């Protein structure tokens, strides 16, 4: 049985489940603007209709992924946690301070010009604070508990708390996307402005992938709703 066939019918499966089990699915969902991280608990049919897209169009794109190379994410919990820490926690801590600095410069130098993302620096500064608190909770409490236990010890409460944080982060990303016109640089924008939007787009993609890995792959290992009775 192929990878895709094992997931059929796709339309009746949750978006997050598909993203977690089908290599390449996240790229398809990004193309169709389907939220697979913060709202991964929605059925594909429902997610597609909410976007005004025929579900069969997305299903066809997913079917074309049959035979795609498997995910290179570590399968063991300890390895997956290490990947999250190294690939995402460290990356976000580098990304946001630089984006805040770039945003402040753009807002100051180009104040009053059409398309200037006024207030973006403040949003990014708030995001830095909130994300740091979130990551520290994971690093000091949640991840150590996951490393020393298995699925027989459930962590429903802590993961529910982290999922709420992820929802807030998703709302923040939508706000940034709208404020920057989907990271579209105005004609004639300076190099700083271009660097800001390129970096912000990369930050969004990284955070979406980060949330996806936690919500759809790591957390279910420690939640009663995802463990067979």
Can you summarize the main beta sheet?
Answer: none
Q: Helical amount among residues, as a percent range?
A: 55-70%
Derived from helix and strand composition plus strand pairing, the structural class reads: mainly alpha
β-sheet strand percentage: under 5%
Principal-axis shape equals globular
Overall structural domain count: 2
Total number of beta strands: 0
Query: Helical stretch count?
Result: 8
- Order of SSEs: HHHHHHHH
Average pLDDT, rounded to a whole number, is 88
Describe the protein in words.
It is a single chain. By secondary structure, this protein is an all-alpha fold. The chain has two domains: 5-63, SP0561-like (Orthogonal Bundle); 77-226. The protein is built from eight helices and no strands. Helix 5 packs antiparallel against helix 6, helix 6 runs antiparallel to helix 7 and helix 7 (156-179) packs antiparallel against helix 8. The chain is globular, with a radius of gyration of 19 Å.
């Amino acid at each position: 049985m192929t990878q895709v066939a094992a997931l059929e019918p796709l339309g009746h499966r949750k978006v997050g489940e598909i993203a977690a089990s089908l290599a390449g699915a996240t790229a398809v969902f990004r193309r169709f603007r389907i939220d697979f991280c913060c709202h991964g608990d929605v059925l594909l049919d429902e997610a597609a209709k909410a976007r005004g897209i025929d579900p069969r169009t997305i299903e066809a794109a997913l079917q074309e992924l049959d035979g795609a190379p498997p995910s290179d994410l570590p399968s063991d919990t300890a390895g997956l946690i290490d990947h999250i820490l190294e690939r995402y926690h460290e990356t976000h801590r580098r990304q946001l301070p630089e984006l805040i600095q770039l945003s402040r410069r753009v807002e100051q130098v180009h104040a009053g010009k059409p398309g200037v993302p006024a207030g973006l620096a403040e949003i990014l500064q708030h995001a830095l604070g909130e994300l740091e608190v979130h990551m520290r909770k994971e690093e000091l409490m949640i991840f150590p508990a996951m490393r020393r236990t298995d699925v027989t010890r459930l962590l429903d409460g802590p993961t529910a708390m982290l999922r709420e944080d992820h929802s807030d982060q998703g709302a923040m990303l939508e706000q940034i996307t709208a404020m920057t016109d989907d990271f579209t640089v105005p004609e004639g924008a300076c190099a700083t402005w271009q660097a800001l939007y390129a970096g912000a787009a990369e930050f969004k993609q990284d955070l979406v992938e980060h949330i996806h890995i936690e919500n759809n792959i790591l957390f279910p290992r420690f939640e009663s709703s995802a463990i067979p009775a």
